[in-house]
Amino acid sequence: MTTGDFDLHHAGDEPHLIREIIRTHQAVLNVFSRRVGMPAARLALMRLLGTCRSEAVGVMWIARQLGIDAAAVTRQVQAMEREGLVERCKDARDGRRSHVKLTADGLRAFLQVHERAHAFERALGADVSAEDMAAAARVLVRLRAALEALP
């Protein structure tokens, strides 16, 4: 059967790698949020701020580091600010810009959630060997690099 110019039939032996990556990504995000108690996107932001420790960093820098839109970072920072996890301060040279850092409460929350994230990864090791996990991580890093190199 075809739809337009697309053949919907497959020989059956194609790896369907992209489909499996997408399905796995969805499952990981769903289970991760429940088990860790925080969405993966927020943990990524907290991890980045946690590695900066007390140094305040700009929203644009955060967006570049995480590979996401600055508006998305701003929304996440605003929510975290309301929860007392981060504080913002104006850039002394450019009042339109602000810098962000974790509060003491934010750092404590990050350390707790970070440990739960590691426990989640260790739990996956019960069904997947360390060698397979390492191989999967290497393949995913190479795939991401190949995708980023595409025009």
Q: Count the beta strands.
A: 5
The largest pleated sheet is described as: 3 strands, antiparallel
> How large a portion of the residues is in β-strands, by DSSP E?
5-15%
Strand order of the largest sheet: 3-5-4
Structural class: mainly alpha
The string of secondary-structure elements, in order, is: EEHHEHHEEHH
End-to-end separation: 32 Å
Please give a structural write-up.
This protein has 151 residues and is mainly α. It contains six helices and five strands. It has a three-stranded antiparallel β-sheet. A two-stranded antiparallel ribbon has the order 1-2. The mean pLDDT is 87.
Write the layout of secondary structure elements.
Layout: E1 2-3, E2 6-7, H1 17-36, H2 40-52, E3 57-58, H3 59-66, H4 70-82, E4 86-90, E5 98-102, H5 104-124, H6 130-149
Antiparallel strand pairs: 1-2, 3-5, 4-5
Helix pairs in contact: 2-5, 3-4
Characterize this entry briefly.
The chain has 151 residues and is mostly helical. It has a domain at 38-126: Orthogonal Bundle (Arc Repressor Mutant, subunit A), CATH 1.10.10.
Descriptors for this entry?
11% strand; two-stranded antiparallel ribbon; 63% helix; 151 residues; mainly alpha; 5 strands; 6 helices; Arc Repressor Mutant, subunit A
